[in-house]
């Protein structure tokens, strides 16, 4: 009987720990690129082209853009597999542009399971806040790849 009580208590405790949302400072990624020889207009055009080429899902959209203010704001999704489960992550991406500098901020990630390698039927779950550090690490790896891709686009000479 004592073992059953311990198992129940541990199950309840681990369930509470697993449902606690991660702090917002862990779920935000920021990177600043210094590009001193490029104008605000050049950087804006390159960044906008990068958005169009990078985010091809119909769920990825630019929600706001203002060339004069140097601001592009949107939502994008990416898919990944962890173990036997497939996931889709939706997050907000914000880019601020000024003379010689670009700031990338990605935050507000929401995740949902979309399926399993063991099933052909897709899941129909709603998006939820990230609760797992291991899932967050996969997402942050993706954010770093996005930042690297943006940087490569910004430093590339596009003159012809």
Key structural traits:
elongated; single chain; Alpha-D-Glucose-1,6-Bisphosphate, Chain A, domain 4; 6-stranded antiparallel beta sheet; alpha+beta; 160 residues
What would your notes on this structure say?
There is one protein chain. This protein is of the alpha+beta class and 160 residues long. It has one domain (22-155): 2-Layer Sandwich (Alpha-D-Glucose-1,6-Bisphosphate, Chain A, domain 4), CATH 3.30.530.80. It is 35% helix and 35% strand. The chain contains 3 helices and 6 strands. The chain has helices at residues 2-19, 40-54, 133-155, and strands spanning 29-34, 61-66, 71-82, 85-98, 101-116, 128-129. Strands 1, 2, 3, 4, 5 and 6 form a 6-stranded antiparallel beta sheet that branches. The longest helix is centred in the C-terminal third of the chain and has 23 residues, at 133-155. It is elongated. The chain starts with a helix and ends in a 5-residue tail after the last helix. Residues 2-18 have low confidence and may be disordered.
């Amino acid at each position: 009987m004592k073992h059953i009580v311990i198992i129940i208590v541990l199950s309840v405790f681990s369930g509470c720990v697993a449902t606690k949302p991660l702090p917002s400072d862990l779920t935000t990624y920021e990177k600043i690129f210094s590009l001193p020889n490029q104008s605000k207009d050049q950087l804006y055009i390159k960044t906008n082209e990068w958005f169009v080429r990078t985010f091809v899902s119909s769920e990825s959209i630019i929600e706001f853009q203002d060339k004069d203010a140097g601001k592009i704001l949107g939502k994008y999704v990416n898919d990944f597999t962890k173990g036997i489960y497939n996931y889709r992550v939706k997050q907000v991406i914000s880019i601020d542009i000024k003379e010689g500098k670009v700031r990338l901020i990605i935050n507000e990630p929401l995740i949902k399971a979309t399926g399993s390698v063991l099933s052909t039927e897709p899941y129909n779950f709603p998006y939820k806040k990230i609760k797992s550090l291991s899932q967050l690490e996969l997402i942050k790896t993706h954010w770093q790849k996005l930042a690297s891709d943006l940087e490569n686009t910004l430093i590339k000479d596009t003159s012809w």
